[in-house]
Amino acid sequence: MVPSCVAPVMKGLRILGLRIQRMPDDPKKEFMHPGEYDYLTVCTPSVHDTSTLRGWWEEDRGVSQRFYNRILGEYGGSPAFCEPWVTHKIIRQHLDSRAMWAIFPIQDLFGLNSKYFANRSPDSERINIPAIAEHYWKYRMHVKVEDLLDDKDFSTYIKQMIVGSGRQ
To answer: Which string of DSSP letters, residue by residue, matches 30-73?
Structure first.
């Protein structure tokens, strides 16, 4: 959808490009691997106008299976749900990329710990569905900020991922 002249202009002006792993800018690819991103990039597994990682994982079994094998490098059948270890691998790929910024919706970070999504439909995590006026900006965080601040294990886990990737 973006004309081919845009990328060289952005690069010349040193403007950051947005890379969403499941929305590659190369029409020959089904997915991008964060290891392919340039430095002048903001990378993320999902954004406000897409489903979350958990939602995307469940949308199309064939797509998540191919992603599991090709991008995550796992063998065999993929899990039916985006389990915390899968979310960890995806987030870690983004953190390990050369992209200047790696940004994650809180819903995707919640996917690192099942206590934050147990008994919750991934559909309830979606922020915006642009084509449906009744679903503009409907997401409300189900966890109190104070509870997140008190969850030292969760914040330490995320901090260790960040420090381990060399981003600080």
So the answer is: S---GGG--SSEEEES--TTS--HHHHHHH-HHHHHHHHHHTS-
Per domain, the residue ranges of the chain are: 17-165
CA distance 34 to 41: 10
Q: Residue 73 pLDDT > 70, yes or no?
A: yes
Residues 46/94, Cβ–Cβ less than 8 Å = no
Q: Which of 93, 108, 102 is nearest to 36 (CA)?
A: 93
Could you tell me whether strands 17-20 and 101-102 are parallel, antiparallel, or unpaired per DSSP bridges? unpaired
- Highest mean predicted confidence (pLDDT) among 4-8, 80-84, 122-126: 80-84
Q: Which residue has the tokens 């409907």?
A: 138
Rg (CA), the chain: 16
